[in-house]
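Section 3.1: Structural characterization of target chains.
Under the original work plan, the team committed to producing a structural model for every single-chain target entering the pipeline before any wet-lab resources were allocated. The record below documents one such target. The sequence was received from the expression subgroup and is listed exactly as submitted; it comprises 231 residues.
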Amino acid sequence: MEKRSASKIGIWGRLMGVLVIAGLVLSACQTATPQPAATTAPTRSPTAVPTVVPTAAAVEPTISIVNDPTLGPILVGDNGMTLYMFTVDTPDMSNCNADCLAKWPPLLTSGTPTLGEGVDPALVGTATLADGSMIVTYNHMPLYYWVNDTKAGDTTGQGVGNVWYVVSPAGMVIGREPTISVVNDPVLGPILVGDNGMTLYMFTKDEMDKSNCDADCLAKWPPLLTSGTPT
């Protein structure tokens, strides 16, 4: 009986030991099970805001009159740089190509040039160049600078190629004799024209060999000037 009781006790002891060990293992597994990490919203870098740099407003050119000691009153642009006409041009049209413009930079505008005293606003206009930019015209003729002029007062472009000349306040070339030609107008018949085919007029209030057109009149009716014998 004692042996049998002891045997039973031994079996129960071993069984209890197994159960204790199993409980410890289960507890350890539960303790070792990793818990899910707390999630946080991903951090975003702030979106860069493009910086808009304002462009400077286009500065309109200035046309003024200066008195050249040799040529008399002539037109000048910014910084007193001499302006020229290209006698190969036609009214309101530049015939100066890209190579030409590289040597004779155009007087460009995007609106209305500033005019100095004595510059006739009625003679100021624009023409379109091949690249779409606008060149200032005076008496319908485009205006240019000359790259070899380096300072105010320089007129080294005068007479270059017998086609480039400075411009008078009346819108006429200076230092080149005018050309008088005859063209056939479809309505009026044969009439006289001057340089670039511009029509010439007579003033019936003039007298023989005497002009009765005063300063205000001449501003609207620029005279055909000469220093010698016209062509």
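Residues 97 and 130 are 8 Å apart (CA to CA).
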